[in-house]
Design a protein that fits this description.
By secondary structure, this protein is α+β, with helices and mostly antiparallel strands. Helices cover 24% and strands 32% of the residues. The protein has a six-stranded mixed β-sheet, with helices on both faces. The chain has a six-stranded antiparallel β-sheet with strand order 13-12-11-14-20-21. The chain has a five-stranded antiparallel β-sheet with strand order 15-19-16-17-18, with no helix packed on it. Bound molecules: adenosine-5'-diphosphate and magnesium ion.
Length: 381
Amino acid sequence: MSAITMRELTKVYPNGVRALDALDLEIADGEFFALLGPSGCGKTTLLRTIAGLEVASGGNVHIGGRNVTNLPPGKRDVAMVFQDYALFPHMTVQDNIAYPLRIKKMDRRSRGEKAAETADELGLTALLQRRPGQLSGGQQQRVALARAMACHPQVFLLDEPLSNLDARLRLEARTFLKRLQRELGVTTVFVTHDQAEALALADRIAVMEGGRIRQVGTPTEVFRRPANTFVAGFIGSTPMNLVDAEVHDGELAVAGTRLPVPDEARDRVSAGEKLVYGVRPEYLDYSPEPAPGALSGQVVVVENLGSFSLVSLDMPSGDAPATPGTSLQVVVPEGREPEPGDTGWVVPRPGRSLLYRDGELVSTAAPPAVPAARTGADAER
Ligand code: ADP
Ligand code: MG
């Protein structure tokens, strides 16, 4: 069993940079877990601290119930795939894959067999005698994965495993990686700055900012209900609309219109309060005619994104004195796009509007727990 638990994990580099700031996180056994955040937020540092390549300045790390905080990397039973793959250029594919087994003092014959077997699982058999320089980026990445898999670690740690591949290959490799992780069932932590990749691959995601975790949840949870405006702006291929709002007469004054206060926030707001109204462009329906409960504005930009367009509208400020004019983005299916200059109406889908106070979600819902099936009695053994 190989759940990973971090408590108050802190890393301060010798130059004073606090890359991890008293971070608490639980990763369940067998989970495919993403660390997501902008460059410099501490993702690589966290992965390297789990691997033992960095020494924690405070707090602890447990893997499979064992406190590994002060153990060297070789005693942690983890395998890491580095962003640049770090293959040995002078060795064949076979020797690269077999290298960790050699370090573990497995005999030559057994490690050759083991390398060939792992290569076979990853479709690399025909390449065993080549050197890394004779491989494509995608093939090199598979060799790096094979090298990590060959010693059957308890935990895989992958640092931006797909970022060196071009866009098309990246999608292929993504599907491959997801399938491989399902088949192996090994607890896997992967780092990415690409929110689409995290949403597509992960069972759960931790969104990081400045050495801290801002939200942990399933892709659906972080997409539908970002816990704060940082996550709301970071997740989604088009960022969430975040618009100033004020509570008046039990309603929300937003962009020149009155909207109902979202159900979950109804008992938690007070008259005159200034809040931020959040709704994703995907959860707004565009109409060329007035519609009940619609916000109206003027179309300023129409961006063609293939099967749909992203339409930006300038909105009036209306009767909420503290909320200046703002703009909204709406996803419109192909064939229904307006023209710049048109007046348009947008209707929020029921149950998809969120309210933020001081950057935090106003909600009655309890934060989601670690998946029960994976942290139950089995994980305790
Ligand atoms: P990410 O992988 O999310 O881009 P990193 O973990 O690499 O972020 O870096 C987190 C912070 O720590 C950054 O401010 C970075 O400059 C700093 N940092 C990373 N490695 C070192 C190091 N070896 N020495 C000093 N500062 C570092
Ligand atoms: Mg990094």
